[in-house]
Design brief:
Length: 378
Amino acid sequence: MNYSIALMPGDGIGPEVTAEAVRMLAAVGKRFGHSFEYREALVGGAAIDATGDALPEESLNIAKQSDSILFGAVGGPKWDDPRARTRPEAGLLALRRGMGLFANLRPVKVVPELLGASPIKSAVINGVDLIVVRELTGGLYFAEPKKRWDDSQGRKAVDTLKYTEKEIRRVLQVGFDLARGRRGRLASVDKANVLASSRLWREVSQEMAEENPDVSVSHILVDACAMMLIQRPAEFDVIVTENMFGDILTDEASVLAGSMGMLPSASLGTKKIRGGLYGMYEPIHGSAPDIAGQGIANPLAAISSAAMMLRLSFGLNNEADAVEAAVDATLAAGYRTADVAGVGVADSNTQVVNTTEMADAVIERIENPERARVPRPL
Ligand code: IPM
Ligand code: MG
């Protein structure tokens, strides 16, 4: 089969890690008989420099004409002026909104080999396998009014936390469906003791809990959830939450996995393509300007994001399994980029590699499946 992919490398380490995901996909294509065609599109700071706009119309058009988006990262100190007309992040937000990608899936799975990479005790994070479903096109990020103005009392600014029942229901539905295919537990996270929008969220989630009796639902306040993620993270299965709560909780949850450099994400809406749902796939780490250009970034988040694309958008489950097994086997063989190299230093089996070497090790294990361990499901 032939798949068309909008390639949006963006800024910082974005181009370095997406290039490795593309190389990895070529190996998958070769082994399984698919071809992946790319149309590269500008986004973020790179797009601002070239066109003045963080998501030029042409980029959005390329996204619309493709089967999915492979995204790197956006942002960097060069574009950080708070008074600038636009920011790189605006490109990412416009893409999420423009393509209707309301459900952001962020799986956090602790790999046994990286137990020591997290600052949290191994006994606490052992066995963590959770997925956060973050609402991505509403809430504080997008609702109006959203503005800044001056009056006689000084400078003022407002953002709005607004949700409709429909927005809440559709993202929770994604969570229920995921939970059903996993351990059957869903945590709906809100701030219903303070926020009206959260009280609606809780009302809707309670109704949906009755409609989905096969899923066991708990309602957790976001501040308590932040604490539980550190105290007993292994108890979580699926977490569903508001846009900004999800932004904050997923950075926190990433610490469980040792490094943000490990974690993939998928953003989905309702648009169907052959094999699954149209999606945008991006590592959850940012553009990491401090290490950009050095060739030392961890490509595994980008590679695992591409694996999610194979599974969720193209329906290529065996192919996705093969990539994930290759990633596992690569880590088991001791390959570590600098971000996870603190782990197992006492273990002479580990070796520190750069971006390309890490991707090479994964590719070698896709090409030679006998060298990869058993697949792990999402
Ligand atoms: C994320 C990022 C983005 C967000 C930024 C880059 C706009 O932090 O994907 O979590 O806040 O959503
Ligand atoms: Mg974030």
